[in-house]
Amino acid sequence: MDEALRIQQLRKQLETYAREYYIQDAPTVTDQEYDRLMHELEDLEAGHPELADPNSPTQRVIGAILPGFEKYTHARRMLSLGDIFSREELEEFVARVRKEFPGASFVAECKYDGLAMALHYEDGRFVRAVTRGDGLTGEVVTANVRTIRSVPMYIDAPGHVEVRGEVYMPKVSFERLNEVQTTLHLPLFANPRNAAAGSIRNLDTSVAASRNLEIFLYWYQNALEHGINTQARALEAMHAMGFPVNMDFAVCDTVDELWAFIEKTREKRSSLPYEIDGVVIKVNSLEQEEALGLNAKTPRYAIAYKYPAQEVQTRLDDIFLTIGRTGVATPNAVLTPVRVAGTLVSAASLHNEDLIRDRDLRIGDTVIIRKAGDIIPEVIASVKEQRDGTQVPYVFPDTCPVCGSELIRLPEEADHFCTNPDCPAQVLGSLIHFVSREAMNIDGLGEKKVCQLHEAHLLDTIQDIYHLAEKREEILALHGWSDKGFDKLLA
Ligand code: IVH
User: Fold this and answer.
1) Cα 186 from Cα 285, distance rounded (Å)
2) Which pTM does this prediction carry?
3) Which DSSP symbol is given to 93?
4) Ligand 1 pocket check: which of 216, 218, 274, 306 to mutate, most ligand atoms within 8 Å of Cβ?
5) If you measure from the C-alpha of residue 289 to the centroid of ligand 1, how many angstroms do you get, rounded to a whole number?
6) Using one digit for the tens of pLDDT, what is the confidence trace for 57-112?
7) d(CA 429, CA 406)
8) Mind telling me the catalytic residues?
């Protein structure tokens, strides 16, 4: 057989096998057979550099350092959705749509917590992946998206196909990633969404390749051009083309049916292998969708029902104070790390003495933590029934943990203050504030650099900032400084 033809054939075949393996969980060939075909393809490609194709199965997980991300303007804006939080608001949404289309039906789907991505195909070939960006223009991240095994490189569809979906990191991959970060003494990722976004926006493609990312497609951008006229059929068509689509969606004719899907999904939520933060409800007819159009900036044809803040229990292991730049002493909870709303929570601010007293928080207590999406975690209560007598009430210290000076609480005030204006914590806090964007906005001197110079006793006071040139030698000897960076800072 013609070698060029054999290359094409092997690429398609290996793509199908990979799809069966990664998406359908139903391999039809043994690993050995797969490897044998892969080697055959590698050998043939080595002899035909003119037929190289970045979409080839041989190229998908190879690392490369990209020079940067190109920008791409979306054919149709990538929108965000309006949020609702109650059944009443769902009724209002359905009523608004039915006012224009009395017979409208709806599709309910999970709302995945990741980052939105558009995939472009030309005559069956994967050509481009673009992030949402500001909605109008995104970044071209094709090479990183190629490392997602379940994204097909070849599909059976003519012409131009654009599908959109959510790139996400499965819960187990996120946990494993943070275990590795811990062993390597690297900072932990706050949640799977941040970890996925960081991987996709990394210029080193081997990073995305190592992160076990996944994707769910939920939007067939140019479905009407391909003769598809409902959202349900768009999901089925994408599934049939070999895209990962969550087929656990529901076509609903009534609010009751939509609500039943929301409730059923709420119960399943914690056992799903990926994070969801709600349910998306879309008008099923794509013609009605087009006619409904947009509000100011969100669609009128779809809405996101968001689950309320998640609450979990953990143990209050300790309370420690931090001293801010104005001398305020803030108590903080040390918690046994626990997952809440997709995030690992191990600390939370307790704000002041009154909050600890009002909520009756004792060290050793089982406490209830609440967190919604990006919102800061909060300790809302202690579970009194779980007390066994070993819990200790917290006594607010009367001395500063940093400098040992007296801490005072003025009448009518909730906060305690450190009374020493030379307290190192206050000095460092004011140095950080002074260089920050809100204040002098000094380029090249962020929080990390300030802490580093302060620790090395090269930056004790604000005045010292203006004499850094005299300490050039000492500073350049520190980690992370170069002649160029130092000159930029001085400039
Ligand atoms: S449809 C105009 N469906 O949620 C409709 N979005 O706030 C476009 N998302 O930017 C989106 N799961 O990143 C749709 N099943 C789903 C989704 C979903 C997650 C994300 C998407 C979008 C954001 C909207």
Assistant:
1) 48
2) 0.72
3) H
4) 218
5) 15
6) 888 766 677 888 999 999 999 999 999 999 999 999 999 999 999 999 999 999 99
7) 19
8) 111
